[in-house]
Amino acid sequence: MTAKILENISDAEYNEIQAVRSSTLTAIATEPTMAHAKRKSENFKKTDAMMLGSLVDAMLFNPENWSKEWYFLPEKFKLQGDANIKLYDEKMLEFNGNVARFKHLQEARALYDGFFTSKFNRTIYESLKYAQLVIVWDTVIDGVTITCKLKADGILEDKDGLLIPFDLKTINNASQKNWSRHIEDYGYHIQTAHYLDGLKTAKLVDNDDFFHILLEKETNFTARRLIDSGTIDAGATLRVNSLKKWLKAEASGIWEGYPETPELSNISHYAMQRITEE
């Protein structure tokens, strides 16, 4: 399998690379049907939370170029009326999706400042080997070669020369309990497995050392979290399953929705347990 390592790639250039990204695979694994996953991928729009996270990433890890790649709508901008909708569409096209409201810039600046209040984070920043690194690589599924891509927030180099990749997440609550729920709900173990596959194929790492920096939005508190090997293995299995489903749907042109025939439904095990206990 081959891999290309690309540096100084803008979001627009990254989006133009024809390859499977982790968000497509997590959508296949977490959405109700393949039709939902396709709809989500094709009509992808960043939520306010995702927009904020992407902006903080850019400010931290692409300081020389981030301001050129983002356009900020006026604070009082309302998406109403033909003129405003036209302006919004033009900016979305021109900046390839990096269009945010002015409030996002203010919030991102506060999180940026908060990031550096942590001694650990300052150490991370000083140890950066790569930032916003793009990897494009081939993976083989059922004898078919699929091109994949990733954009890693950062890769550290420790005192022994070992490279350690990480991903930054902005989050409301960085507790273990909440983060564990996010891993499952948002497929972060699938994303991690996808990144590790690319990093290993590019021969940048040879182990599963990959950590997440969780930056709380309200408090600016920071937590560092590793995903355990069993969960990463589960994510790798789900990733391969998603690639197989993607391959089948692309080949057939059929992204299946809900079944045509009625399905038997029941309440969850936990709901049934509550009824039994009462």
How would you portray this structure in words?
By secondary structure, this protein is of the alpha/beta class. The mean pLDDT is 85. The chain is 49% helix and 21% strand. The protein is built from twelve helices and eight strands. The chain has a single domain (3-255), classed as Lambda Exonuclease, Chain A (Alpha-Beta Complex), CATH 3.90.320.10. It is globular, with a radius of gyration of 20 Å. Strand 7 and strand 8 (222-226) form a beta hairpin. It has helices at residues 11-16, 22-30, 34-42, 48-61, 66-69, 82-94, 102-115, 119-126, 176-186, 188-201, 229-252, 269-277; strands spanning 3-6, 71-73, 99-101, 128-141, 144-157, 163-171, 211-216, 222-226. The chain has a six-stranded mixed sheet with strand order 1-4-5-6-7-8, sandwiched between helices. Strands 2-3 form a two-stranded parallel ribbon. The longest helix is centred in the C-terminal third of the chain and has 24 residues, at 229-252. Helix 2 (22-30) packs antiparallel against helix 3.
